[in-house]
Amino acid sequence: MALATAHQPAAHAPAHNHLAIKRAGLWLFFFSETILFGLLLSARFYLEGIHREELNQLLGLAITVILLISSVTAYTAETAIEHDNKKVASWYLFFTILLGLIFAGGVAYEWSIAHFHRDEAFGSVFFAMTGIHATHVVTGVIMLILVWLQALRGRYSSKNPWAVSAVVMYWHFVDVVWVFYYPALYLTK
């Protein structure tokens, strides 16, 4: 009898902390994306003779403000879920989606009125930086839509906020990248 119980796993064996594993994976993803965005940012400063007058300064400022406001709405949605206020969370997820789409539209408009070409040095860096960033914004909007649809169904609560928290963390990451990109593209010579 003693041999039979010796080979059975202990009933109190530690379980994996799945939330900690998910958070670690998300932070590793952010680290890898930081390298990509950092390399693009360094390429911008490697080039000489960049004229910011070619960019629409007012539009650049406007889309930056829109993106920063979207971080506030995303944070409000996350906080609302953590306090089981599902209606407020749903509305603020919707507002974040709307602001993200406006930002992406602003970038697309900037592309259409840019006075430089893709084959010029600054044009290449500008289109690469804004294009990859806009791709991440659109990806974030898609994830926000998926989370928003699930939030409308009541899937998330203070006991199950991970999906909302993860998407909001991603959204904040994309916003922080733009905080570095905006001055590098629009404010420095």
Automatic annotation (TrEMBL):
Q: Which residues cross the membrane?
A: 26-46, 58-77, 89-109, 121-149, 161-181
Q: Which GO terms describe its biological process?
A: aerobic electron transport chain
Tell me which GO cellular component terms the UniProt record holds.
plasma membrane
Q: Where in the cell is it found?
A: Cell membrane
Q: What is its main location?
A: membrane
A Gene Ontology molecular function term for this protein is: cytochrome-c oxidase activity
SUPFAM superfamilies recorded = Cytochrome c oxidase subunit III-like (SSF81452)
Q: Which family does it belong to?
A: Belongs to the cytochrome c oxidase subunit 3 family.
**What is the protein's given name?**
Cytochrome c oxidase subunit 3
The organism's taxonomy opens as: Bacteria, Bacillati, Chloroflexota, Tepidiformia, Tepidiformales
